[in-house]
Design a protein that fits this description.
single chain; 243 residues; alpha/beta; seven-stranded mixed beta sheet; 9 helices; 37% helix
Length: 243
């Protein structure tokens, strides 16, 4: 072993799937993640038929993902195999086959439509396969007020539980942020009450055992590109290979 390699931390490899009700902007989010990671020099658009992961003619014509595709997001400590799955209910079988190999998932919602019928089906499948989940609420550029964001977060908590916690950059590091995380685990709450903080490794564990579901609010469109960088960073930070 060369001198420079001694003590070097082994790189992690994790497989993360993007799941969504059709038209929530899942493929647009994948383009934005790949662009921000540097895997793409230019990002395509579904409406132009040049999205990087929509490679089949039928996908370009219909503007939807029909087959699951994969791409690589590289990081200093973690490489992420990104799986873009079909969102249309007609291709649910293709999507469900992908779930069996995932270490984590990003469930994409439209901030305009909120939780839809197929979103609930996807959530149940993620429960079935015990997959850690992050939630990205897309198209928030069309939601103009803080009140609308608060209402969407409340909807997520009512549907999927109090473990849905806002991880937006604006709230990270605040006392209320740590308090909301701490409420997801008794031992974590005890430590928070003693120290006023929650260690990152405890946050990771809560996510990986599906007691905590980080929520991000933004827009994956090129002109907006809000919340995507935080999601990309936290995918590598908090998700890990399942046992």
């Amino acid at each position: 072993m060369g001198a420079g390699k001694e003590g070097r931390k082994a790189k992690k490899y994790i497989c993360v799937g993007l799941l969504a009700h059709v038209d929530a902007g899942k493929t647009t989010l994948s383009e934005s993640l790949l662009f921000q990671n540097g895997a793409l020099r230019e990002r395509g658009r579904v409406d132009r038929g040049d999205a990087f992961l929509d490679t089949y003619a039928v996908e370009k014509e219909r503007g939807i993902s029909v087959f699951s595709k994969q791409a690589l997001l590289t990081g200093e400590d973690t490489d992420i195999i990104l799986m873009d799955t079909p969102g249309h209910v007609d291709f649910s079988a293709e999507m469900e086959r992908t779930l069996q190999v995932l270490d984590g998932a990003v469930l994409v919602l439209s901030g305009v439509e909120g939780i839809q019928a197929h979103t609930r089906t996807l959530w149940k499948l993620l429960q079935k396969y015990e997959i850690p989940v992050m939630i990205f609420v897309n198209k928030m550029d069309r939601c103009k007020t803080i009140k609308e964001k608060a209402e969407l977060l409340m909807q997520l908590q009512e549907e999927f539980g109090d473990g849905c916690v806002d991880f937006s950059q604006a709230v990270k590091g605040t006392e209320s942020f740590y308090e909301n995380i701490a409420m997801c685990g008794e031992s974590v709450l005890e430590l928070f009450l003693e120290t006023g903080n929650v260690p990152e490794e405890m946050t990771q564990k809560l996510i990986r055992v599906r007691k905590l579901f980080p929520c991000y609010f933004g827009s994956a469109l090129q002109e907006k590109d809000e919340g995507v960088g935080e999601l990309l960073t936290d995918m590598g930070r908090y998700l890990g290979q399942r046992d």
